[in-house]
Write a structure and sequence with these properties.
By secondary structure, the chain is α+β, with helices and mostly antiparallel strands. It is built from seven helices and five strands, in the order H-H-E-H-E-E-H-E-E-H-H-H.
């Protein structure tokens, strides 16, 4: 079985420096080969590998074996993990299957992580723009509960934002328009296909 070594930053300093500074093209070296094949790539003896540009520095620090596997989602590769050992090691089929499965699990985690960061960044940008806007801006859930209200709502509707959050959006609407909003929202929620849409309803502000 291929051994996983605990990180030792001072053990292979030159190899780590070269590895971090180098960029590998598609199919180049150990990480590039794993990227291209989208599977585990094992070099049982680095000195015999024809596609290993870091051989000289690896040899100077007595590294013998290398293995790399992709972090993927479907056919999309998000990254590569590579490992090395100072002793020649075989890679058992069970270990190879484990690394393939591990790469898929980490790939799913990374995709969700980056999607979450992207969503958070978008939310932060929206809040920043909404806070500076002179128009009243709300966000609501599927029950018409107010989730967000910007400071301009106080000037437009006479209510502070913190007073409105958690309540119904209909509280800032004229009574004759409340049933219209509720009907449109119910019809929207009952539609299987919900395209992004924006409806505008003029309401009377409190001056």
């Amino acid at each position: 079985m291929f051994g996983l070594l605990k990180p030792t930053p001072d053990r292979f300093p030159d190899f780590q420096t070269v590895s971090r500074a180098r960029h590998f093209a598609f199919g180049q070296g150990l990480p590039g080969s794993a990227w291209q094949s989208r599977t585990v790539v094992h070099y049982p003896e680095l000195s015999l590998a024809q596609n290993f540009p870091r051989l000289s520095v690896a040899a100077s620090e007595h590294l013998r074996t290398g293995v790399a596997f992709p972090l993927y989602v479907g056919k999309r590769v998000l990254g590569i993990i590579e490992m090395f050992n100072a002793e020649p090691r075989d890679l058992a089929p069970a270990t190879q299957e484990f690394l393939v499965a591990l790469g898929g699990q980490i790939g799913v985690f990374l995709e969700r992580f980056y999607a979450g960061r992207t969503l958070q960044a978008a939310d932060a940008q929206f809040v920043l723009l909404a806070e500076a806007a002179s128009l009243a801006i709300f966000t609501i859930d599927d029950q018409s509960n107010i989730l967000f209200a910007n400071p301009a709502v106080e000037k437009v509707f006479g209510h502070k934002a913190e007073e409105l959050i958690g309540g119904k959006l209909t509280v800032v609407m004229p009574e004759y328009l409340r049933h219209v909003h509720e009907h449109v929202l119910a019809r929207y929620l009952g539609t299987a296909y919900r395209p992004p849409a924006c409806t505008r309803t003029d309401t009377k502000s409190r001056s």
